[in-house]
């Protein structure tokens, strides 16, 4: 039987979490020491194996005006095939208010062989909101091929489009996703998006961050780092270095 589960977080100024609702495999835990000036930290702890084929999971986070929230995870999310062969869905919906900050830093999403997952992330930013968002996809577990994975990240700032990007990998995906023009045999892909008022005053310049990563400015204001790597460790190192460079470490 497939799962339907939605976990919810509401963060308010001073580190308050009036809503922290876990559901099914999505267990949310408040972590770290509560300090009003630092905001709140929530860790996603997997309570069972998910997503499997046919599952529909969702996480919603609402960071209200003036609040600060960091969301991370205790372990990677591993997409696996289910008994029915159906596609799984994982939806993330994030809202960040005026003068608020969200640091969305999950662990890697691993596309296990035989799985089929569609992941959608939608972010609504107020005009003065700040966002640090990291996404990492690992195509296949050790010594195996990947499943089919489609991800879409849509970010709007003050109601206007900031970024709308879709990636698709794995069996059945057309377009030479594993060829030299896309992944070139790499099995880890990720991005780091940093949006904030600091980029209005001093936009970043486009540049290469080594042979398999690049930094580009976005209108909005924001900066986007995109990287591919041989494995999860190399990808994380690249994105961590980019975060430090952008003042988001």
From TrEMBL:
Protein name as catalogued: Urease accessory protein UreD
InterPro entries on file: UreD
Record carries keyword Cytoplasm: yes
Record keywords, A-Z: Chaperone, Cytoplasm, Nickel insertion
Taxonomic classification: Bacteria, Bacillati, Actinomycetota, Actinomycetes, Kitasatosporales
UniProt main location, coarse: cytoplasm
Cell location: Cytoplasm
Quaternary assembly: UreD, UreF and UreG form a complex that acts as a GTP-hydrolysis-dependent molecular chaperone, activating the urease apoprotein by helping to assemble the nickel containing metallocenter of UreC. The UreE protein probably delivers the nickel.
Entry's family note: Belongs to the UreD family.
Organism encoding this protein: Streptomyces pyxinae
Gene: ureD
Function according to Swiss-Prot or TrEMBL: Required for maturation of urease via the functional incorporation of the urease nickel metallocenter.
């Amino acid at each position: 039987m497939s799962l339907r589960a939605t976990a919810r977080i509401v963060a308010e100024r001073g580190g308050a979490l009036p809503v922290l609702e876990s559901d099914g495999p999505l267990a949310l835990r408040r972590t770290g020491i509560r300090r009003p000036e630092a905001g709140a930290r929530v860790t996603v702890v997997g309570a069972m194996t998910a997503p499997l084929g046919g599952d529909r999971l969702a996480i919603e986070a609402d960071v209200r005006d003036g609040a600060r929230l960091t969301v991370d995870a205790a372990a990677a999310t591993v997409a696996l095939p289910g008994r029915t062969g159906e596609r799984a869905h994982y939806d993330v919906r994030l809202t960040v208010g005026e003068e608020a900050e969200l640091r969305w830093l999950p662990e890697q999403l691993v596309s296990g062989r035989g799985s089929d997952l569609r992941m959608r992330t939608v972010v609504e930013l107020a005009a003065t909101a700040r966002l640090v968002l990291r996404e990492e996809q690992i195509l296949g577990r050790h010594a195996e091929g990947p499943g089919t994975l489609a991800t879409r990240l849509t970010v709007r700032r003050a109601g206007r489009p900031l970024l709308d990007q879709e990636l698709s990998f794995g069996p059945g995906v057309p377009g030479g996703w594993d060829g030299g023009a896309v992944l070139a045999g790499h099995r880890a892909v990720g991005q780091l998006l940093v949006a904030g008022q600091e980029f209005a005053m001093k936009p970043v310049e486009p540049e290469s961050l080594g042979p398999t990563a690049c930094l580009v400015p976005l209108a909005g204001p924001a900066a986007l780092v995109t990287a591919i790597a041989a494995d999860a460790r190399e990808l994380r190192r690249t994105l961590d270095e980019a975060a430090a460079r952008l003042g988001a470490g």
